UniProtKB/TrEMBL annotation:
This protein's name: Protein kinase domain-containing protein
MF term (GO), any: protein serine/threonine kinase activity
Every Protein kinase domain range: 3-273
InterPro entries according to UniProt: Kinase-like_dom_sf, Plant_MAPKKK, Prot_kinase_dom, Protein_kinase_ATP_BS, Ser/Thr_kinase_AS
Name of a matching Pfam family: Pkinase
Species name: Eucalyptus globulus
Length: 372
């Protein structure tokens, strides 16, 4: 064994997580500090499944990395199965929010949501569904600005694969956390990419309010919550303090019909996320296999001119990911992209005028205003 087990930093129903320090003889590619997820070798089917999923997914900057697996003989003759993972010094996003004691700002929500979506788009493009998206499974890496990554793939499944029967809930298997479950998961035992998008919407509500999407009382009675989710038209309450773009983003996540719910790829182009692009978006998107999305959003005011993103071009463009949704009233969403961008044409005209190739004559005093 070329690593040393340290203190416990977390535990769940299937495994315990410890810090792990690598030895001097450690193979190249392993960092000096890792997180090792361990369980009894005889009860390791779930953890082995997580290892297989991570291996098939491959590397993406928005997913926690896996550095291999090992069997170890512990004191007393116990044999443990271990998965070596990337260590997140900031813990989970749920822990981070609890320690700060207040909701996240709009800018923080946009940044984290974009990162999670990039990870989900990668997972879905590889033919998998995470099935347990929640703040507890989003890990924070504080080096350089609180980067977040998706973790815990123990419940992940192949898209299109039917879940096993024979569970405790009337012969059906529940996957994930009730407060994050989508209507189709409750009603039809269906866990496909749209259910991850619904769960993401619940995570965004929690980031914006500091409370679970269905309220704190939902934790006490899972069956009553299932009825609320699966029956009728009720959706989680949209936070009043969120921007109009953020509210529209959530409405796209909370379409009750999964066939009319936005995909992760579509949501990456939503104006809510376009407001806060980071410098390394192209590199991250390319590494995650979504390079074509990186250039879809302006990075400064003058990009509007070069993109020719007027109200007319936005509404008429067949490339708009929301064009079909805005033309079909059966799609969820109170605020359409055309409404969001309706005030932009006058500003664009002004930028076009400012972008003239003629050099201005600063010596001409006509039109100047004296300021004291």
């Amino acid at each position: 064994m070329d690593w040393v087990r340290g203190r416990e930093i977390g535990h769940g129903g299937f495994a315990t997580v410890h810090l792990a320090a690598t030895a001097e003889t450690c193979p190249s590619g392993r960092p000096p500090v890792m997180a090792v997820k361990s369980c009894d070798a005889a009860l390791s089917s779930s953890l082995r499944h997580e290892r297989r999923v991570l291996s098939e997914l491959g590397h993406c900057p928005r997913i926690v990395r896996c550095f291999g697996e090992e069997l170890t003989a512990e004191r007393g003759g116990e044999e443990l199965y271990n998965v070596l993972l990337e260590y997140a010094a900031g813990g989970s996003l749920a822990d981070s929010m609890k320690s700060r004691g207040k909701p996240l700002s709009d800018a923080e929500i946009r940044r984290h949501t974009r990162s999670i979506l990039e990870g989900l788009e990668f997972v879905h493009s590889k033919g998998f569904v995470h099935c347990d998206v929640k703040l507890q499974n989003i890990l924070v890496f504080p080096n350089g600005g609180d980067e977040v990554k998706i973790a815990d793939f123990g419940l992940a499944k192949k898209a299109g694969e039917q879940p096993a029967k024979g569970g405790k809930q009337g012969g059906l298997e529940w996957r994930g956390t009730p407060m994050y479950m989508a209507p189709e998961s409750v009603n039809c035992n269906e866990y496909e990419p749209p259910s991850d998008v619904w769960a993401l919407g619940c995570a965004v509500v929690e980031m914006a309010t500091g409370r679970p999407a269905w309220g704190s009382r939902a934790e006490s009675n899972a069956y009553a919550l299932m009825i609320r989710i699966g029956v009728g038209d009720e959706i989680p309450e949209i936070p009043e303090g969120l921007s109009e773009q953020g509210k529209d983003f959530l409405m796209k996540c909370f379409a009750k019909n999964p066939k009319k719910r936005c995909t992760a790829r579509m949501l990456l182009k939503h104006p809510f996320l376009a407001l806060d692009c980071v410098d390394n978006d192209e590199e991250v998107a390319r590494d995650c296999g979504v390079a074509e999305l990186a250039d879809s959003s302006p990075r400064c005011h003058f990009d509007w001119v070069s993109m020719q993103c007027s109200r007319t071009s936005w509404e008429s463009s067949s490339l708009s990911p929301f064009a079909e949704m805005d033309s079909d009233p059966s799609f969820a969403g109170e605020h359409t992209p055309s409404e969001i961008w309706s005030d932009s044409s006058s500003a664009i005209d002004r930028f076009v005028e400012l972008a003239s190739h003629e050099r201005p004559n600063w010596e001409d005093s006509e039109g100047w205003v004296t300021v004291r």
